[in-house]
Amino acid sequence: MAFEGLTTRLQNVFGKLKGRGKVSEDDVNEAMREVRLALLEADVNFKVVKDFIAKVKERATGQEVQKSFTPAMVIIDIVNKELTELMGGTQEKLAKANKPPTVILMAGLQGAGKTTLTGKLAKLLQSQNHKPLLVAGDIYRPAAIKQLEVLGEQIGAQVFTLGDKVSPVEIAKQGVQLAKDQGNDYVLIDTAGRLQIDEELMQEIKDIHAAVKPDEVLLVVDAMTGQEAVNVAKSFHEQLALTGVVLTKLDGDTRGGAALSVKAVTGCPIKFASTGERIDQLEAFHPDRMASRILG
Ligand code: GDP
C-alpha cells in the first residue's frame, strides 16, 4: 500500500515523543530531524522538505506546545495541518464552463493512465447526471482508440473517433462541435503521450489547447514515479498552464513523494486520485484526508 514506509517512520518518531511527559526544544529538534529524513526517504522534493520542516519547527517550539499537557499530540496536529497545506489545503473541484460544454483536456506521458482516467472521469460525471462525450485523440498508441471505445461501451458513454489518420487537433475540434450539437455538457479529450517529454508531443497538445480552449487541463501523473512525476508536472505546467493534476496508481507502493511535492513545486492543485485499474477506482483528492492517512 502507498505511503507505508513513511507512515511507519512517522509513527515511530511521534511514538517516542508521546512517551515523554514534557517536550523540550531539543526533543522537538530531534523529532524534526527524523521527520526530515523520513520525508526525504519518501522521495519528497528537497526544497519542499526544507520549507515544511521550518514551518513545523516554528510552530512546534511555541507556547502552545510548552503549555500543553499532551505536547506530542499538539505537534502531531501541527504536522497534520502543515501536510494538509502542503498538498493544497482544500479539495479543488473540477472547472465548469459558464456555457456548456465544459472541455477537459488530458495530458501526460504514455502509460500514466490518461485513457483509463478518461473513462473513470466520464463515469463519475455520469453519476452526477452529466452527459460526457469522450474524444479519442491518441492516434499513435495502437490500442488507445479501441481501449477508449471499450471503456465507453462499458459505461454507456459515446466515444467520438475519426480513426488514426486524422490529426488530433481536427479530432478535438470536431469532437467539441459534436458535443455542442448534441447537447453533451462535458467533453473529455484523451491525448497522446510519449515515453518522455519531447517537442513534438508538447507542440501537438499546445495546438489542441489553442484549437479547443479547454476549461480544464488535467495532467495525469503516475505517483509511483516519485520525483520524476514532479519534474514532468513542472515541464508541462511551464508550457501548457495546467489547471489540475491527477495522481494515478496510488494503490501501488508509492513512497509518496509525488503526492507531497507536486502542489508545492508547481502550484497546481491535485484534483483527483486514482487508486486502481477498475473504472470506479477514482476519488476526489482531499488533502486533509491524505494527510491523516499518511500519519496513520
Ligand atoms: P495512458 O497511456 O496514459 O493512456 O495510460 P493507460 O490509461 O493505458 O494506463 C496504463 C496502465 O496503467 C494500464 O494498464 C492501466 O490499467 C493502469 N492504470 C491506470 N490507472 C491506474 C491506477 O490508478 N492504479 C493501477 N494499479 N493501475 C492503473
UniProtKB/TrEMBL annotation:
Location within or outside the cell: Cytoplasm
GO cellular component, one term: signal recognition particle
Signal sequence extent: none
All residue ranges annotated as the SRP54-type proteins GTP-binding domain in the record: 269-282
Key word RNA-binding present: yes
Reactions catalysed according to its record: GTP + H2O = GDP + phosphate + H(+)
EC number: 3.6.5.4
Main location: cytoplasm
UniProt-recorded Gene Ontology molecular function terms: 7S RNA binding; GTP binding; GTPase activity
Keyword RNA-binding annotated: yes
Family (UniProt): Belongs to the GTP-binding SRP family. SRP54 subfamily.
Functional note: Involved in targeting and insertion of nascent membrane proteins into the cytoplasmic membrane. Binds to the hydrophobic signal sequence of the ribosome-nascent chain (RNC) as it emerges from the ribosomes. The SRP-RNC complex is then targeted to the cytoplasmic membrane where it interacts with the SRP receptor FtsY.
Domain comment quoted from the record: Composed of three domains: the N-terminal N domain, which is responsible for interactions with the ribosome, the central G domain, which binds GTP, and the C-terminal M domain, which binds the RNA and the signal sequence of the RNC.
Subunit organization: Part of the signal recognition particle protein translocation system, which is composed of SRP and FtsY.
Protein name: Signal recognition particle protein
Native organism taxonomy: Bacteria, Bacillati, Bacillota, Bacilli, Bacillales
Whole-protein residues included: 1 to 296 of 460
